[in-house]
Amino acid sequence: MARILVTGPAGFIGSHTVDLLLKEGHEVWGVDNLRTGRMSNLSAAGQSLRFHFVRADVAEEAPFNEILDEAQPEAIIHLAALVSVPESFEQPDENFRLNLTATHVVAEAAHRHGVKRMVFASSAAVYGRTEPFPLDEHCVTVPISPYGAAKLASESLLAGYAECFGLIIRSHRYFNVYGPRQDPSSPYSGVISRFWERLGEGSQPIIFGDGEQTRDFVYVGDVARANLLAATKPDVRSGVANICTGRPTSLNGLVQSMARLLGREVRPMHVAPRQGDIRHSLGSPKNAAVQLGFTASTTLAEGLQELFLRGDSGLRD
Ligand code: UD2
Fold first, then answer.
1. pTM above 0.90, yes or no
2. pLDDT, tens digit, for every residue of 95-121?
3. How far away, in angstroms, is 84 Cα from ligand 1 center?
4. Mutate to test the pocket of ligand 1, among 89, 176, 255 (most ligand atoms within 8 A of CB)
5. 30 forms bridges with which residues in the sheet?
6. Residue 138 is part of which domain span?
7. Is the CB of 194 under 6 A from ligand 1?
8. What's the CATH code of the domain at 51?
């Protein structure tokens, strides 16, 4: 059993990571400012005596160091972030604070407290418009948003900490993560949560463009497992890895999969393409397999079924 501190535990990926860590017997400290996270995501975790929650802003150095004084974690999984790409354009200062300053605060505190490992939530957004596909970690990174730029800068900062101070630091470039508890409320929320919500309301999913754009959809339970491995697996070294499936799915194909699950025809509504959208995004999962022993095991059909069975969408009502 290890003592692991998770930043952003009340968020979508954070809460699944906490649930898995607790299930595996670890002691978990969670630090969240609840800017976008929700305590309801932690209702299961809150039942465990091995879970300790502190409401605090990770970008503020003094309180975060005080928490580390008390928690004395062996590893930190740093997931707290400003999570929306469009919001990073609207609020560049907040993006810088939450997606870069906070990384510095966490890394420096980890170093000072003798934390051995750190896992960082990076993003496929660091690649920007880079081709060819599938994207591997040696591809040139050309971020096209303040969000992607801050994530890339954080990766570099952390690579320096790993090299200079001997911490083991893993940066995870998450692709299109989906699953239960993903918030569908904004037009910029993940497309799968948006589609489910529309179907649950009895309306048509809206596709921006012709629907032939593709994404690499990875199930949140797999992402949580990648985080667990990076934080706890023996003999893991520092590095960067895509967290993806290596399988492309078009939005039209996604709608068809949902229709099969519902056992009825679904006719999406096509509207104008979304400005700034990239056409295709597909990652190579090889590095994660070699460096971490991680392979995403949930197929899209299985992941969608899990969403459906958990009833997050209201589709079974
Ligand atoms: C994903 C990440 C983002 C960043 C980016 C990097 C999510 C939620 N976002 O953005 O954080 O890492 O990748 O490239 O994972 N769409 C519709 N209808 C809808 C909603 C979306 O057609 O109701 C389309 C959208 O135009 C796009 C695709 O679905 O072509 C995926 O959109 P998204 O917002 O789920 O994710 P993406 O790939 O833009």
1. yes
2. 999 999 999 999 999 999 999 999 999
3. 10
4. 176
5. 6, 53
6. 3-178+220-245+283-297
7. yes
8. 3.40.50.720
